[in-house]
Amino acid sequence: MSNKVDVLLGLQWGDEGKGKIVDYLADQYDIIARYQGGPNAGHTIKIEDKTFVLHTIPSGIFREEVVNIIGNGVVVDPITLCNEIDGLKAIGVDPLERLLLAKKAHLILPTHRLLDAASEASKGKKKIGSTLRGIGPTYMDKTGRNGLRVGDILSSNFKNKYASIREKHLSLLRIYPEIEFDLVTEEKKWNESIERIASLTQINCEEYVNRAVNSGKKILAEGAQGSMLDIEYGTYPYVTSSNTITAGVCTGLGIAPQKIGEVIGITKAYCTRVGSGPFPTELHGDEGEELRKYGKEFGATTGRPRRCGWIDIPQLKYAIMINGVTQIAITKTDILAEFDFIKAATAYKIDNEITLEYPYSLENNKIEPVYKSYPSWEDRSNDQPLDDDLKNYLEVLEGLLNTPIKFVSNGPGREELKIR
Ligand code: IMP
Ligand code: MG
């Protein structure tokens, strides 16, 4: 009998606390693999009193015994990857011995970042609020069959391929407003970084992962962004350009659906979103400000303030359905402990009808979330039992979501986690 690939992913708009939970779970796995996204991700991990933010490297990198794979569904910016490697080395972690790079992963070029910025600038008020890391243009070149891949780095015509894509990008840029961008400097950094990552271990990801699963190795696929940013099922067009959902694990690592095991979905005890796009339970007044302040809700990649609101049950039910979630991890329960009462949207009211169904467009529909109020709880350290009010609330959520809540995280540290 073979093992399966477990999945850990975000159920909201990203920033649910994936990095912390992956880091915690990593010692139960042989391999941690990123399957999509790129340096738009910011996975924050706190070990003792030090905080690290990972953008491309999987969150298992702090465990010596764990192999970390950057899968074929990921888009890799060589510059960010080198910065991350250097950052880890500076704190005594040598990632090179336990980091593998899929040959089929696509490369982010400096001109992809330039195109991202120009495209956003041209959209004015309609901008996506992209992280400007070149994610969209790189996936466009991938599906447009123009992309440059990690496996090309060692081929003799790499430089020619690069030059021809660069030319195409520069012509494309003429349709956009001009953007300030030091292409010469960025290309110099990029070329130096390419030389460095040329010496990383490259793998045929699909072969490696299938061999590993069949030989009994335990694998955890680490999602980035969140389900509501999925290109297919998220709040399009305010989404990222990859499949952030469980289905993305199959394409992003090269494994069959039958090989998917547990799917751990992460949600905050409330909800946040960074960038533009619909957010039914967003709080615009004092409560939103308080959530942002207590929760330190500022982007790990861009530093932007995150939009904050109450937890949204119809939204979570939708994400649980799309992903086949088998267990939930809830994070930041300590932040809600700052309030006396908290709310959850248990349904939507659209055109005077109560519904639990996530609508086609959240932009055209006037959604009124239907809220229920619950007493908050006292935040307790991990050696104490959960406060009864929190326990009751978790049971309410489990009933509404029809899925067990297995992990409760009440702080950024490794030890601030309860397994139920
Ligand atoms: P892009 O993926 O950089 O093009 O950004 C598209 C949208 O997804 C923007 O609203 C970003 O703020 C959001 N986004 C991308 N990556 C993340 C993430 O890791 N966490 C939260 N939001 C993200
Ligand atoms: Mg993040």
Kindly summarize this structure in a few lines.
The chain is 31% helix and 22% strand. The protein is of the alpha/beta class and 420 residues long.
Would you write up a description of this structure?
This protein has 12 helices and 20 strands. A hairpin with a 2-residue loop joins β3 (43-47) and β4 (50-54). It has helices spanning 18-25, 78-90, 110-123, 135-143, 158-173, 183-197, 205-214, 246-253, 286-295, 313-323, 333-336, 388-401; strands spanning 5-10, 31-34, 43-47, 50-54, 67-70, 75-76, 99-102, 106-107, 201-203, 219-222, 260-268, 271-273, 307-309, 311-312, 327-331, 341-350, 353-355, 367-375, 405-409, 417-419. It has a 10-stranded mixed sheet with strand order 9-7-5-2-10-1-11-15-19-20, sandwiched between helices. Strands 14, 16, 17 and 18 form a 4-stranded mixed sheet that branches. The chain is an alpha/beta fold. The protein binds inosinic acid (IMP) and magnesium ion (MG).
Could you give the count of β-strands?
A: 20
Using only C-alpha atoms, the radius of gyration works out to: 21 Å
Average pLDDT metric = 95
Shape: globular
Please summarize the sheet with the most strands: 10 strands, mixed
Strand order of the largest sheet: 9-7-5-2-10-1-11-15-19-20
Measured between the Cα atoms of the first and last residue, the distance is 28 Å
Give the strand content: 15-25%
SS element count, helices: 12
Structural class category: alpha/beta
Question: What bound compounds does this protein have?
Answer: inosinic acid, magnesium ion
Helix content class: 25-40%
User: Segments where pLDDT lies below 50 for 5+ residues?
Assistant: none
